[in-house]
Design goal:
two-stranded antiparallel ribbon; 10 strands; Spore Coat Polysaccharide Biosynthesis Protein SpsA, Chain A; 30% helix
Length: 190
């Protein structure tokens, strides 16, 4: 019997949004016969996070006094239990939580058009999903400055405490239909 490393237990009342803006048509590609955006939305609900629609004003988010989970439609198979765990860590540490995955590709320096030394990838991460904003951070913002999670994570880190959590392999980001097929194979039910 395989045990899920993340236990879904009750989390504080939390709002969540699936971010699909500025991602082209890929969020509407199918994985296991369902749209990526739908899979991401279902994970929010399974985690006990109340989904909001795109018409919700930032003022309403502030007024709710609840944390906000930003879940990227391009990370559609992120387990609900991991989303819930990110909310708990954000609450416990009063910090923004940013999910990351290790860098597995070789990364080289480029200087004056020439390929140089290999960069130690142990010091690098890829931002995935979710990004969890505690209620105090939501109240400090006028809205999102970027829908690009890596850019947003950097901007938030400049202003607020940030904790990174390693997302499970199913939480990887897709960038193409080939990536979707790979993720589908990785997450195929046994």
């Amino acid at each position: 019997m395989t045990t899920d490393p993340y236990d879904i237990a009750s989390i504080p009342p939390t709002l969540g949004a699936v971010v699909e803006a500025e991602r082209g048509s890929l969020p509407f590609a199918l994985i296991h016969g369902e749209g990526l955006v739908a899979c991401a939305a279902w994970a929010l609900g399974e985690a006990g996070i109340t989904p909001i629609d795109h018409g919700t004003s930032w003022a309403a988010l502030i007024e709710s006094g609840e944390p906000l989970v930003l879940h990227d439609a391009l990370c559609p198979m992120t387990p609900a239990a991991f989303l819930a765990d990110c909310v708990r860590v954000s609450e416990e540490r009063s910090a923004v939580v940013v999910a990351v995955r290790p860098v597995t590709d070789t990364v080289k320096q480029v200087e004056d058009g020439y390929v140089g030394a290999t960069i130690d990838r142990d010091a690098l991460v890829v931002v995935t999903s979710p990004i969890v904003l505690p209620a105090v951070v939501v109240a400090s913002l006028d809205g999102l400055s970027s829908y690009d999670f890596a850019t947003l994570a950097g901007q938030l880190a400049a202003r607020f405490p940030v904790v990174t959590l390693e997302a499970p392999p199913a939480g990887r980001r897709v960038a193409s239909l080939d990536d979707v097929r790979l993720l589908e194979a990785l997450t195929r039910p046994a």
